[in-house]
Write a structure and sequence with these properties.
The complex is a heterodimer. Chain A is of the alpha/beta class. Chain A is built from 24 helices and 19 strands. In chain B, strand 8 and strand 9 form a beta hairpin. The chains are: A alpha/beta, B alpha+beta.
Chain lengths: 617, 238
């Protein structure tokens, strides 16, 4: 017998959970997100536990390790509720002071507060920090409050409320209509209308259908889906239940990569809990709807995020994409109609059902509704997870939330949408971010990676990096992607090594056109974006590499010249000792000279020089 | 089975429902080059040489004709500029991969491509990764002794862990179907060597000419339920 037998029982249970809780209870919430965990969330939580026990606060103060708090560059983060005081870069050594000053005496530990980079003013509360002020969290809103391993926590915050609504008040048709009306589009890359996808699958002939949650997040620098799966696993499961009810699926799969062991563990635990409670299984809450979910672990191939490759991987085959049609909604997993939704898409679904499609559609732009989670990384002061309404400008995200560029350097470009996204230059900083606007400037929304680059980044080298990632990750099934990426990398390698020729730029454009048009799957079709966008917006950088054999950003080593400024050199010989090839010499007590014939441009002399006498051009 | 009519290069064609664009174009005797297509194998769209342009201008796109099903009223261009640009570039890429493969040289020359502007890594490479061998072993023979291993750029056809395969019956179908004769295959003194494994060939008990490896005959016996002795006589003597 499940713990919860009916929807009324669920409501009663939720009431009891809430009644046991005091909204004014002092809570210490330690961030256990992907950024903070390796910085030491666990020892920090243990330190709090021990210190609170020593001070007799046990039972009076609630201690929880939660999901991601967002501002990862300032971890480990601690949130103290109900006042919402946030401390940053907290270590176990800070714990006694926090317990004494804040928990016992209601004061502030000033040195652990976030400082506004412009005004230098300390920001004691979460709401004072510009990073949080401009956000509108919908998917991430519970991440810093709930214990991901506690179903009671999720229920207290209104979790699984959709069950009453969908199972007893709505037909599958009405659920699909609601999602269609909300304007929700897939958050995993393509931006396909989720409601339409569900309808196509519902209408596909066949009694056995599947819903798959795509948690195969593989973009370098992206951890949106990971943070959601680790921090709020029940939201994903609840979204899947709604989806399964809408399309008439009996079985669901969550496809998570093996490199996300914590996500797998949390999802497994959450699945056990909901099975025990009766939210999964046969005749859920005495309705006529039965559904269960299995976890399928991937081995970490980037291409397995592509729908048909993902299906092949779950089926136990080599993770290679198959040509479409047939589309997964017609013939997907084991040849049966299948809906594949991304983690973030599914996490949006419960709120759409609870709050209504109009509420959701009120956020965002004409063709992109709701919010989007981005993992903001690279050359910004505040890196981490942000969630903003669609249509927020790049400038707002990078400068207001991100706190601007590190060391006040110049913004150069932002790369959106993962490795196969494009690099967007500064002239588009006021671009409202949505699916269509990004496409117009040669990039993609993708799953929401956002890598900010400044004057220290060489755009040719950036393109080379992404192409080398994609070449390694291409499954190699179709010719344009497999051979095309290999050749693109060879050409980009030539250019960054100073052996580029001008004719190669046109050849790359021609190659990119064919890769985009003739590749089998989305990986190959979008793989050319980093090259095409940098060629379009930063062509002069390519030309400088080719014509002048210079790298303006001083990144491409083979194009650099290391010399010693005789006016600055103190003849300390530190560089001479460091040089691995003996390229530096000169008379004693006189400025030293680098022999350009011998120099291998390793840069050790520059690092060794304390007088900044080594000049790089 | 019904038929649908579609427009191929401006000509109305009727094609059976469920057939592919490639099959439909062959009804018109149009020459569409293919490398990975084989009438007896399920098409998988590896080589991208058979691409055609579909849809109404300006919203046209390239699809591979070997898997794309015929649709009512679909407008198909088999030799548009976009199609030819893609085919030539694909061949140019393959020419750089396998400069000595005659099939590629011939196919490229047919589209006016005689030289590649791209770099060749290994001038002796002959495999174009069309997957015909792997699919034949899986779909026709039914043993899956070989498969694609690794991803690009190290992708290659191999037995598991590149060791002699336990399930290989030495039938040689992979070598037979390979368009570039890449798969090493020798027969000497009643021994067939393939994929690093020696297979003893069985001689016909009547005429004495070699039939096939014992492993293959045993596999036939297992499949059919016949006693293996039945296959120890060659087809001519049976």
């Amino acid at each position: 017998m499940p713990i919860i037998e009916s929807v009324d029982h669920l409501t009663e249970y939720r009431r009891q959970v809430r009644a046991r809780r005091d909204p004014n209870q002092l809570q210490v919430l330690v961030c256990g997100g992907p950024g903070c965990l390796p910085l030491g969330s666990e020892p920090l939580a243990e330190a709090f536990q021990a210190e609170m026990a020593a001070k007799g606060l046990e039972g009076k103060v609630l201690l929880k390790t939660t999901g991601c708090h967002g501002l990862c560059s300032h971890g480990v983060r601690v949130l103290i509720r109900p006042k919402e005081i946030t401390y940053q870069k907290v270590t176990p050594e800070d714990v006694p002071e926090i317990v004494e000053t804040t928990l016992i005496n209601q004061g502030l530990v000033e040195r652990l507060l976030y400082q506004d980079p412009h005004s230098q003013a300390p920001c004691p509360h979460k709401g004072d920090i510009p990073f949080y002020q401009s956000q509108n969290p919908l998917v991430l809103r519970k991440l810093d409050i709930i214990d991901p391993e506690s179903l009671d926590d999720y229920l207290a915050f209104g979790g699984y409320r959709t069950l009453r609504k969908i199972l007893f008040q709505m037909t599958p048709e009405q659920v699909i209509e609601a999602v269609e009306k909300s304007g929700l589009r897939g958050r995993g890359g393509g931006g396909f209308a989720s409601g339409r996808k569900w309808r196509l699958c519902r209408n596909a002939p066949g009694d056995v259908k599947f819903v798959i949650c795509n948690g195969d997040e593989g973009d370098p620098g992206a951890f949106m889906d990971r943070a959601i799966m680790e921090g709020d696993p029940h939201a994903v499961i609840e979204g899947m239940i709604v989806g399964a009810y809408a399309i008439g699926a009996l079985r669901g799969y969550i496809y998570v990569r093996h490199e996300y062991p914590l996500a797998v563990k949390r999802l497994q635990k959450a699945l056990e809990q909901v099975r025990e409670f009766g939210f999964l299984g046969t005749k859920i809450l005495r309705s006529n709807f039965s559904f269960d979910i299995k976890i399928s672990q991937g081995a970490g191939a980037f291409v397995c995020g592509e729908e048909t490759a993902l299906i092949a991987s779950i089926e136990g085959k080599i993770g290679e994409p198959m040509p479409r049609p047939p589309y997964p909604v017609q013939a997907g997993l084991f040849g049966l109609p299948t809906v594949i939704n991304n983690v973030e898409t599914l996490a949006n679904v419960p709120e759409i059902i609870n709050m209504g499609p109009e509420w959701f559609a009120a956020m965002g732009t004409d063709n992109s509704k709701g919010t989007k989670v981005f993992s903001l990384v690279g050359a910004v002061n505040n890196t981490g997870l942000v969630e903003v309404p669609m249509g927020t400008t790049l400038r707002q995200i990078i400068f207001d939330l991100g706190g601007g560029i590190i060391d006040n350097r110049d913004f150069k470009a932002v790369q959106t949408g993962g490795p196969s996204g494009g690099c967007i230059p500064s002239q588009f900083l006021d671009l409202p971010v949505d699916y269509d606007s990004l496409q117009q400037v040669g990039s993609i929304m993708g799953s929401g990676g956002m890598i900010v680059m400044d004057s220290h980044n060489c755009m040719v080298d950036v393109a080379r990096y992404f192409i080398s990632f994609l070449m390694e990750e291409s499954c190699g099934k179709c010719t344009p992607c497999r051979e095309g990426l290999k050749q693109l990398l060879a050409i980009l390698g030539d250019i960054t090594n100073g052996q580029g020729e001008e004719s190669q730029l046109a050849l790359m454009e021609e190659l990119c056109r064919t890769m985009a048009a003739a590749s089998l799957c989305g990986l190959g079709q979008s793989a050319a974006n980093p090259v095409l966008s940098t060629l379009k917006y930063f062509r002069e950088e390519y030309e400088k590499h080719i014509r002048d054999k210079k790298c303006p950003a001083l990144v491409c080593r083979q194009l650099l010249t290391f010399t010693i400024d005789p006016n600055e050199c103190t003849s300390c010989l530190a560089c001479v000792r460091e040089c691995p090839v003996g390229a530096i010499s000169g008379p004693k007590k006189e400025p030293q000279v680098i022999d350009q014939e011998i120099c291998i441009k390793c840069g050790l002399c520059r690092d060794a020089c304390q007088f900044e006498a080594v000049v790089v051009e | 089975m019904g038929e649908v009519s579609l427009l191929i290069n401006g000509i109305y064609v009727k094609a059976p429902v469920g057939s592919t664009l490639l099959e439909a174009t062959r009804l018109l005797d149009l020459e569409i080059p293919t490398l990975c297509h084989h009438p007896d194998l399920k098409p998988e769209g590896h080589c991208r040489l058979c691409v055609v342009e579909i849809g109404e201008w300006p919203h046209t796109r390239l699809v591979n004709s070997c898997t794309y099903p015929v649709e009512k009223g679909l407008n198909v261009q088999t030799h548009s500029d976009k199609v030819l640009e893609a085919r030539r570039l694909v061949l140019e890429l393959l020419l750089a991969r396998t400069p000595k493969a005659e099939l590629i040289q011939k196919s490229a020359a047919a589209l006016g491509v005689t030289e590649s502007r791209f770099k060749t890594e290994d001038p002796e490479e002959l495999c174009i990764l069309c997957g015909l061998c792997v699919r034949t072993c899986r779909e026709i023979v039914g043993v899956s002794a070989i498969s694609m291993s690794s991803r690009a750029p190290d992708k290659q056809v191999a037995t598991p862990f590149k060791e002699p395969s336990e399930v290989c019956i030495g039938c040689g179908s992979c070598a037979f179907v390979c368009p570039n004769n890449v798969i090493p295959y020798t027969e000497k003194n009643g021994i067939r060597t393939i994929w690093g494994q020696d297979f003893e060939l069985v001689a016909c008990s009547a005429c004495g000419s070699y039939i096939a490896p014992l492993a293959q005959l045993e596999y036939w016996a297992r499949l059919t339920g016949d006693p293996v002795e039945r296959y120890l006589v060659c087809r001519n003597c049976r």
